[in-house]
GntR family transcriptional regulator (Kribbella soli), 432 residues
Amino acid sequence: MTSYIEPLAQESTPSIIADKLRKAIGHGEFRPGAQIVEADLARKLGVSRGPLREGMQRLTQEGLLVSIRNRGLFVIDMTPEDIRDMYLAREAIERAAALKILRDGDFETVGLALLAIVDQMAAADGDPAAVGELDIAFHELLVRLADSPRLSRMHQTSIIETRMCIHALEETYLATDARAVEHHRLADAIRTGDVDRTDDLLSAHMDDAIERLVSR
Amino acid sequence: MTSYIEPLAQESTPSIIADKLRKAIGHGEFRPGAQIVEADLARKLGVSRGPLREGMQRLTQEGLLVSIRNRGLFVIDMTPEDIRDMYLAREAIERAAALKILRDGDFETVGLALLAIVDQMAAADGDPAAVGELDIAFHELLVRLADSPRLSRMHQTSIIETRMCIHALEETYLATDARAVEHHRLADAIRTGDVDRTDDLLSAHMDDAIERLVSR
DNA sequence: GGGGTTAACATTGTCGACAATCTACCTTTC
DNA sequence: GAAAGGTAGATTGTCGACAATGTTAACCCC
């Protein structure tokens, strides 16, 4: 039972704006390489350029936007090299998260929670968009349950970049069956507390993802 | 030989401000928990509050500043829990960097470059501040040579947090001998391309650092 | 036609001013 | 004397305006 009385942390406007921008980029509302025109976007969001610029600086720090002086901010364009680098970072983060759970967390509960997502994945078989969402949900849950503010924050950025990749390929991001199997194995390894197997599977999972995204 | 003709990327004002703030925080010019008063700082930096706020948003995204609405931005206060979490993230990043170097980098050259820093460390024996700087230089070089934009960006934040911890303890952060030995072993493991040993040493190195920082 | 100059336009960068909010202190009341 | 209420000061949040910069296209010259 959680108390109703808790510190009410009102989010700052720039952080709300940053969230919205992240969602928009992740869902393909801004194409890779596209310029973000401040005045237009400010009008659409119903704020002035000040707070908007502050929010955009956050995404720039994350590397989702790149700044060119006196020209503007542009959505990052994910090259194959970027995709590899992103998965390098993602694997580092998720491995650390998994390891923390296996070492001093309730890995059995976590494993079962992950398996629940895998079940949904199997149920959603055939719908690539749904499977894609569940894929991301799986990895987000894994990191969240590791209960590490820093890993979570870093992971957030990687997830947006992953979304960008998936969205760019849209219909062609297939192999839903194989992915369900990979996730099932991974969740199982965590449930049983098998460190080495988790490590290997996670690594292979990331390599497969790179392969799927870069090869085409 | 590098070409003189290269894209001239002028940094944006907010990013310059963010760099200055990071340095200031890392060197203890702003105490943990201290409020950053916009008007004062803007005057000192010779800019208006707009660009300054944009720069501060970057540090907020990194987690070096925390925002409380209508009250201001405050330098993060590193609790023992924060220290542990920071080292969890740092280990994840540096491990990935080391692994990448061992797998598809010139690990021998990297190992020698790292050993050069260890030599300086031995030469600077007795001066805790110098050893501290070299300690950080060692880890920065390791990640930089991995040549991963994302790992580098994430590592930058962790390094500032590390600096905060070292600075907070100031004179009492000792055990310079033990640290030189640890770094020497680590550099050697990389030079010889020993993946497992690198992994173990890095892990132990981080644990020791946590112990040194938290125990007091 | 190619290269260079100029001018209009669009966009970003910066600033100062005002509104909203919070804190701290003082006053009032019971 | 303690608690509630009110007030002044300081700080942050937001906005609109202006300056600086870059881009585009038309125009001119060779």
Chain B has two domains: 13-75, 80-214. Chain B has nine helices and three strands.
